[in-house]
Specification:
The complex is a heterodimer. In chain A, 18% of the residues lie in helices and 40% in strands. Chain A is of the alpha+beta class. In chain A, strands 1, 2, 3, 4, 5, 6, 7 and 8 form an eight-stranded mixed β-sheet that branches. In chain B, strands 1, 2, 3, 4, 5, 6 and 7 form a seven-stranded mixed β-sheet that branches. In chain B, strands 9-16-17-19-23 form a five-stranded mixed barrel. In chain B, strands 13-14 form a two-stranded antiparallel sheet. The longest helix of chain B is centred in the middle third of the chain and has 17 residues. Classes of the chains: A alpha+beta, B alpha+beta.
């Protein structure tokens, strides 16, 4: 009988902020454990929140074999890979110091706004090992700042946000960007003329819909918009989309929940606009005769399942100002509540956005709605995916994506 | 039970969870999970700042209290602090569900029930399906240095079916969900599931893109619940108002915000997802009229916001789990029913949209609702299914646009998860009557 052990240790020190002042300090140290046993093509699972001994969980997992859950797939094994992406730790005192410093500037220079929510320092260790010689460990630590911005003269619940996430925190860089950003929040501007405008976002508006439709199970059973289209040109030739678990790009482990590590932590789904792959775990790859892409997700104490995959566009365009060619664009900061219909039609209200010249956020725009269709957003109306060199909200390499969209004022 | 440090306010919330999840993909069992978890959240207050710890080693609660106390500055007048004064002192045990505890039902029985529902999904238009049973029983105990000592239980269970549908060129993913506080009652829901599955197939087969524009919209009880929660409920959470003069000026109590027919309630005693006889700082649940006869009459409070705004406690300080501190949240929020039959309201509508089921909603300055099933209303009848990406309305304006509420009323007390900042997926109850809004933007 094979045995597999997973443990996720999450530590957090957080400063809770209300009305631009420190309201509370919170500490958290939680361990989640999972144990899986494999016997005669069946899997049994057990788990806990808290440090329950492995021997107890092992007995519970053996009991769970009686449920008869089929798992006739070979375990990942014979691989040791320990990676530590921690760039430095931040003590509780240092965290409080950063919080007080940021809030002091906000109170003095931006008293027309109110800021609330959280700054935190987070440490994560995810360890997975089994009796087949698999031993994977991912260790990381990062600072996170997420403040809701509220204009004091406004009766809205919120009017924007300040955000930052990174393994390091550089206050000089943070303020160099956020002073301009907060000035842009103060400056009201009008939407440019025209019903169709270039619209830019942090990352891609389409990534959630693509995740749903590139799911191998949905592809194989016929309910994906892309079913039967592997090998076909779907989108603009510039577009390459990959499953990307590279921890240098985001806070994410380099392995999936079946202990699979892909070469270079990547797997291409769409290449030059053509559908190459859909994402699969071991079960769905075997069931539907699809290439296995190492995409199992699931709870620490759960059965591996196929739900989502960390999709990321490859940067395909270099010069944002040149792409805009002197036109002004809309930069969407917050859009909440919009959606795609299942045929790919998209509409979303834009709650917070800015006029954007490719380098700077010029001023804050009124609310409006954006409309398009997936095939247009990633087809003829696609502008490009650019490395983000102008908006400092993370020390991870982030991207901006643009396409032309219909604006309903 | 605990030794509380001098000069500080302390409360301890201990939570014990027992839950089950079972899932199938088509006829193949995917997961059968039974878990028991325990944890605690500790708060220490010195009058200036709060200090929190979330822990799972329950044998060391005292050590964590002492560690937090060392970070605080003892305050000999802590009992006179307005927030501390506002805390109720309650001593009570409210164990309602031990005789019909979900935790006592064998997992095999739960699985057998779920398997009965799988047979409902045999239509060839259903190209794939997944079925889920989930339940949770929680026992919470709250202790405070002021003397509160309350223990209560709550439970909920439900079935969720996810359908991948293909009808010609039309595809959709639809869901049917139903829950109850008692396992036995789930056994009577097969007809409901069968009817909803059939409606989803018909919708997927016949739905056509909507012509975008402004429409009168008739909301089902489910949609009315989401509308109430997103368009107004969050606005009534008073942590958004503390220190916010603009919001206080916009939403003063007694302001008329709707027609006389509009009454909106938040009730922590309503059974189901939002049931919270004591909130997570030990305040007893209240039935709070947020709007009565179209006038703003109340707000939702924690002890801190009640003290800061000099308003009464409402029992709405809730945390998603022992990993978080309580913040102001809704419990079960709904529009009270009216006295008009649905048929009469519908008959008045020459043209409009009927929103039957909803994928998700959100509420900032604009509230949004992404319908799963929606239909045209033509000449007083519900007719053509239409695909809608999103329905939007201005939060400040839409309440005044509610011009009819039906005598028919339904409550949904399972599957509703509310997100607020870092705490996502808090169970809440929602529902209401069929509710007509004179105009909303449909895309």
């Amino acid at each position: 009988m094979n045995q597999e052990f997973l443990a996720l240790n999450s530590k957090q020190a957080a400063v809770r902020i209300r009305n631009t002042g420190i309201e509370a300090v919170r500490v958290r140290d939680i361990i989640n454990k999972g144990v899986r046993v494999y016997k005669d093509g069946k899997i049994g699972i057990a788990g806990s929140i808290g440090d329950v001994p492995d021997s107890v969980l092992l007995d519970n997992a053996i009991d769970n074999l009686s449920a008869g859950i089929e798992y006739p797939y070979s375990l990942s094994g014979n691989k040791t890979d320990h990676r530590d992406y921690t760039a430095g730790l931040m003590s509780q005192e240092e965290l409080l110091g950063h919080a007080e410093s940021v809030l002091d500037i906000l109170r003095r220079e931006y008293a027309d706004f109110d800021f609330s929510e959280t700054m935190s320092f987070n440490e994560v260790v995810l360890h997975m090992h089994n009796t087949e010689g698999l031993d994977l460990k991912h260790k990381d630590a990062y600072f996170s700042l997420g403040l809701v911005l509220k204009e004091k003269k406004s009766a809205n619940l919120m009017d924007g946000s300040l955000s930052y996430r990174g393994r390091r925190f550089n206050p000089e860089k943070f303020w160099a960007f956020n002073r301009l950003f907060l000035e842009a929040n103060r400056r009201r501007v009008e939407l440019p003329e025209g019903d169709i405008l270039p619209v830019f976002t942090l990352g891609s508006l389409a990534v959630g819909f693509l995740t749903d439709n590139l799911n191998g199970e949905r592809y194989a059973t016929g309910s994906s918009l892309f079913s039967g289209k592997i090998g076909r040109q779907l989108f603009n030739e510039k577009i390459t989309l990959e499953q990307n678990r590279d921890p240098r790009l985001a806070n994410q482990a380099f392995f999936d929940m079946e202990g699979v590590v892909m070469p270079d932590d990547r797997c291409v789904m769409i290449e030059n606009g053509k559908l190459i792959n859909v994402f699969t775990d071991k079960r769905n790859a075997a069931l539907y005769n699809l290439p296995h892409t190492g995409s199992a997700s699931g709870d620490i104490d759960g059965i591996p399942e196929l739900a989502g995959a960390p999709l990321r566009f490859r940067t395909d365009s270099r010069n944002l100002e040149e792409a805009l060619d002197g036109r002004k664009a809309v930069f969407v900061w917050i859009t909440s509540g919009g959606d795609f219909t299942h045929d790919g039609t998209f509409a979303a209200p834009v709650q917070v956005s800015f006029l954007f010249d490719g380098e700077r956020l010029i001023g804050k725009l009124p609310e409006f709605t954006i409309r398009s269709h997936l095939n247009k957003m990633l087809g003829d109306d696609y502008i490009g995916t650019f490395d983000n060199a102008c908006l400092y909200y993370s020390d991870f390499p982030t991207q901006l994506q643009g396409c032309y969209m219909t604006i309903a004022r | 039970m605990f030794e509380y440090p001098e000069g500080l306010y302390v409360d301890v919330r201990i939570e014990e969870y027992n839950y089950t999840t079972i899932s199938f993909k088509k006829n193949t069992l995917q997961e059968q999970k039974v878990r028991e978890n325990k944890g605690a959240f500790i708060r220490v207050f010195d009058g200036q700042r709060w200090y929190y710890a979330s822990i799972t080693d329950l044998d060391n609660i005292q050590a964590h209290i002492d560690a937090l106390a060392k970070m605080a500055v003892p305050n000999p007048r802590i009992l006179e602090h307005p927030i501390v004064k506002a805390f109720e002192i309650n001593r009570d045990t409210v164990i309602r569900y031990d005789k019909q505890s979900i935790a006592g039902i064998p997992v095999q029985e739960k699985q057998a029930l779920l398997e009965e529902f799988i047979s409902l999904m045999s239509d060839p238009a259903i190209v794939h399906h997944a079925s889920y049973y989930s339940d949770e029983r929680a026992v919470k105990s709250i202790y405070s240095s002021k003397g509160t000592k309350v223990t209560f239980d709550k439970q909920n269970c439900g079935i969720f079916l996810s359908l991948d549908l293909v009808c010609g060129d039309n595809r959709d993913r639809m869901a049917v969900v139903k829950g109850d506080v008692f396992f036995e009652n789930l056994k009577d829901t097969k007809d409901y599931f069968a009817a909803e599955i059939e409606k989803n197939i018909q919708y997927t087969r016949d739905a056509k893109p909507v012509t975008p524009g402004e429409y009168p919209v008739l909301l089902s009880p489910l949609a009315a619940g989401i509308f109430t929660h997103e368009s107004f409920g969050h606005k009534s959470e008073s942590d958004f108002m503390v220190g916010d003069e603009a919001m206080m000026a916009e939403w003063p109590l007694e302001k008329t915000v709707g027609l006389e027919l509009l009454n909106i309630v938040d009730d922590g005693m309503y059974p189901g997802a939002g049931y919270t006889p004591y909130d997570d700082e030990g305040t007893g649940a209240k039935k709070t009229y947020l709007i009565a006869k179209g006038k703003l009459t109340g707000r939702l409070h924690s002890a801190a916001t009640a003290a800061q705004l000099a308003e009464p406690l409402t029992g709405n300080a809730r945390a998603m789990s022992f990993a978080f501190e309580p913040i102001v949240r809704m419990t079960t929020t709904y529009i009270e029913k009216g006295d008009r039959p649905l048929s009469g309201i519908l008959a008045e509508m020459d043209r409009g949209i009927f929103v039957d089921t909803v994928n998700h909603g959100s509420g900032m300055s604009t509230f949004t609702m992404a319908p799963a099933r929606a239909y045209l209303i033509e000449n007083g009848r519900i007719t053509q299914p239409v695909k809608i990406s999103v329905i939007t309305g201005n939060v400040f304006a839409t309440l005044a646009e509610v011009d009819a509420v039906s005598a028919e009323f339904e409550m949904h007390t399972f599957g509703g998860g509310c997100g607020k900042m870092e705490q996502q997926g808090l169970p809440v109850g929602f529902g209401g009557p069929y509710t007509r809004v004179r105009k909303l933007n449909v895309q």
